[in-house]
Amino acid sequence: EGLAEFQSQGWNTQIDMIVRDAILNGTMPSLQNLNYYLVYQGGASVFKYIAQTYGRNKIGEMLNKMRGRTTFENVLRSAVGM
What we know:
Blueprint: H1 2-9, H2 13-24, H3 38-54, H4 57-66, H5 72-80
């Protein structure tokens, strides 16, 4: 869901405000525990970070790895070491 959010609208001030508020107030859950709403904004935040830090091509690399029936956590770990 985060990738779809990142691709469809990129980053905007609303997403920034939601994620920043959750982080500053200590309420940002782990990737595994993102709730129904934060899964979109939190996921978009993860993909924004990956694109800015490692390049947008890294996202394509991750999508290719997802074809191998593995978890997102394993793909994230192998692609960027998170």
